[in-house]
Structures are given as structure tokens and as C-alpha cells.
Amino acid sequence: MHLYLSTSTPWNANYCLPEGQVIYKVQDAGSTFGPRHFKVSRVVPPAIDPFADEIEDAAFQDTFERVGEVEYRHFGTSRVKFGEKEESINTFFKKGEKANFLKDRIFVGSDGREYKWKLNKKDCELFLNDTNTLVALYRPRKTSYATGPQPATLDIFQQGCHIADLIVVTFTYIERVRYEAERAAKRGGGM
């Protein structure tokens, strides 16, 4: 699944298919001084009766259902909610090895398998932890003289489609962590 992000901030963007259909909405309902709440919703396919004489206009309007939420805190412990399960980030993720400038984050998917977010300087990659199979890849927005501006993208490969909702929820947290570390490194003079 190839998703284009409507903004360069994944924690406050629409995630769209190449045709323009919004699949996920992530809204940042945060405050300046308190925790930020990244609310992740997925489009609900319309229930259209193909044998009906008329199809109501409402059937063609997208509706969304909440699939998860991240409570992001600069200080203190952030939390993640997925489905009915809510837990602290420290419980949900375990830290892996330090690759570039941040430690990998490992979590167990709803399928019982371990997944590892690898946080790079400019992007994020999600792997199956036991086989290092690439499951998802984030590329930030970039501008090129040859091609012009390119929107940010999140690719969820076949190996991750069954946990796509969880990938988007964890990605919003991971990318915010990577973004904050990048900002801190620029202010402090190194990564």
C-alpha cells in the first residue's frame, strides 16, 4: 500500500492512495504545554446496496473510525492506545540497538510477531525483527530541481498489510521521536 501524506508532519496529516482516496487521518489534538494526542482514524468503506433504486449522497461521503491514539509527552511517559489496549510507551516498545542516532524500537504486533522500527537520520523503516524483512518504509517530503516537490510517503508492503492500522499508529509516535531528536541535534550541534 503506497500512501502519500498531505503534510510533512505525519502526526497531523491525511494518508492517501495515489488516486487521492484518504485511507487514514491523523490529527494532532495537542496543546503547547501539555501532552499531544495523535488520533488515528481509518476510512470505513461505504455500505452501498447495488440493487437499490437510488443511492443516497451520504453513501459517497467518507466516514472514519478511530483505530488508535498516541499521547505524546515531552516529559514523562507517553502512552499508546490501539483497539481496547492502552499502555505506556515503555511497556509497548522495547529499545533495540542504537544504529545512527536513536535506538531501534521493537514491538509485538497483533499477529504475535516482533517488529522493529529503525530510526534513521531522515527516514524510518519497519522490519520483521527475526528475519529483517522490510515491512514499511517512510520517506519524508523532499524538493528536487528536476522533479519539483515530492510529498512524504509511507509504503506498507505485503508483509505488513494485515497490521496496517498498527503500523500507522506506531509510525506517528516513531516519526515524532525521530523529528524531536533531529531538532535537538540541530540545536545542540550533533546527532
Structure description:
The protein has 191 residues and is α+β, with helices and mostly antiparallel strands. The protein has one domain (2-46, 62-188). The protein has two helices and 15 strands. A 13-stranded antiparallel sheet has the order 7-6-5-4-3-2-1-15-12-11-10-9-8. Strands 13-14 form a two-stranded antiparallel sheet. β5 and β6 (79-82) form a beta hairpin. The mean pLDDT is 86. InterPro entries: DUF6593. It comes from Crepidotus variabilis. It holds the Pfam family DUF6593.
**Sequence stretches where pLDDT stays below 50 over 5 or more residues:** none
How would you name the oligomeric state of the polypeptide chains in this document? single chain
Question: What would the principal axes of the Cα set say about the shape?
Answer: globular
Q: Give the count of structural domains.
A: 1
Structural class: alpha+beta
Pattern of helices and strands: EEEEEEEHEEEEEEEEH
Number of helices, counting only DSSP H or I runs of 4 residues or more: 2
Strand content: 35-45%
Radius of gyration: 18 Å
Observed structural traits:
13-stranded antiparallel β-sheet; DUF6593 domain-containing protein; DUF6593; 2 helices; 15% helix; two-stranded antiparallel ribbon; 191 residues; alpha+beta
Describe the structure in brief.
This protein is α+β, with helices and mostly antiparallel strands.
